[in-house]
C-alpha cells in the first residue's frame, strides 16, 4: 500500500534525511512530496560539567536485541586494564536486564555500574540536568533518528553511537561525538571511550558546545514544531 499512500497524500515527512532518501530511492516518482521534519526535544538546560573523578557514561534504551546493550557491556569490559575510573549508568528495563546485571557483576566489577531500570522521562531529564555526564552511548543495530540522542546532545553531552539510520545526522564524527561501524567490535567502542576520556578539557568543552549548538539549530522542538506548522498551514493562514 506504500505507493497508493504516497499517491494519495499531499506530503510525507520522515523524521530523518536518511528516511527521506530511502523513500526517494524506492519511489522516485513521489520525491517532490517527501520532506524531512525532525521531531526535536524540549530545552531542559545543560548538564553540569564534571569536576574530576570517574568518567561518567550513560545509556538509555529498552533492553532488546536491536539495542545490543549486551555488546555495549562487553565493550566496556575491554577497558578493565585501561586505568580509567569509569561509572556506567543504564536507564531502561527489559527481559535482558537480569542477564546484564549478572554480566556486570562478573566482568565489570572494576567499574561502578548502576542500573536505574525504567524511569519517567521527567526523572531522566532531571538526572541529565543535575548530574555530570561525560558521554552517552548508543549501540543499536538499527535506528530511525534516536530521540534519546537528541535529549543527550540538548544537554551538551557528547555521544558515541553506531552509524545506522539517521544517527550520523546528529552524531557528527569528531564534532559532537564519535561514530562506530554498524558491525563494530568491542575493542572499537572501548577505544572511542578511551579517546574521549583522555581528551584535554578544552577539546571536551568544544564537543559539548557543538552538541548544544547542533541541537539548537536542528533539534529544538520549539523551533521544529513552528517550522512544521508553517510548512503545513494552508495558504493565507
- Side by side, the strands of the main sheet go 3-2-1-4-5-6
Mean pLDDT: 95
Major sheet:
6 strands, parallel
Distance between the termini: 32 Å
Give the H and E element order.
HHEHEHEHEHEEHHH
Percent of residues in β-strands: 5-15%
Helix proportion range: 40-55%
Broad structural category: alpha/beta
Q: Helix count, per DSSP?
A: 9
Low-confidence stretches: none
Number of strands: 6
Tell the overall outline: globular
Radius of gyration: 19 Å
How would you describe this structure to a colleague?
The chain has 237 residues and is α/β, with parallel strands linked by helices. The chain is 41% helix and 13% strand. The protein is built from nine helices and six strands, in the order ααβαβαβαβαββααα. A six-stranded parallel sheet has the order 3-2-1-4-5-6, sandwiched between helices. The longest helix is centred in the C-terminal third of the chain and has 19 residues, at 201-219. It is globular and about 60 Å long. The two termini are 32 Å apart. The model has no long low-confidence stretch (mean pLDDT 95).
List keywords for this structure.
single chain; 237 residues; alpha/beta; 6-stranded parallel β-sheet; 9 helices; 6 strands; globular
Summarize the structure.
This protein is an alpha/beta fold and 237 residues long. Helix 3 packs parallel to helix 4 and helix 3 packs across helix 7.
Present the secondary structure layout:
Elements: H1 2-8, H2 17-26, E1 55-60, H3 69-77, E2 86-91, H4 97-107, E3 112-117, H5 121-130, E4 135-138, H6 147-154, E5 159-162, E6 177-180, H7 186-197, H8 201-219, H9 221-232
